[in-house]
């Protein structure tokens, strides 16, 4: 199954509408979708290395715009969803302390989640939920997502074939490690 998905993404990477598909995946991943844009971006760059930096730019812009949606979900849906849950659990008073701690470290949280495999959507929603300064959130998102996508683009542009060979030979391992890291990120957030 993983091999078919990989082969499909390699074929899709050279499709005329691949950039639009990447933009859509990057946008929704930043607020609610569980699959990162890297899974489409990497084969797109491997298929067309000359467009590596255009692909990275599209992923970054769409991801930051999707992050704004995640921020809005946190800012506007918390009262109807999050607050009643916290009250039911007897944790409503803890929210203010958490908000202050998160916002004090918010720049680093957004930067870390934007660069690493940690689920960026969690931080975008938490940023809106805690009322993090929107300008700080946006600037940090641009820096973090830009670093992540442009570093990947540069590495693939420079070392495309060996990276593709590594991925194809160890596809199961790469996907397993990715999902272990993704699940660990969700667990860390759950128990913070």
From TrEMBL:
Ranges of residues in domain VTT: 52-155
InterPro entries, sorted: DedA_domain, VTT_dom
Pfam families: VTT_dom
GO CC aspect terms: plasma membrane
Keywords on record: Membrane, Transmembrane, Transmembrane helix
Name the UniProt record assigns to this protein: DedA family protein
Entry's transmembrane regions: 52-78, 105-123, 135-159, 171-189
Organism: Pseudooceanicola albus
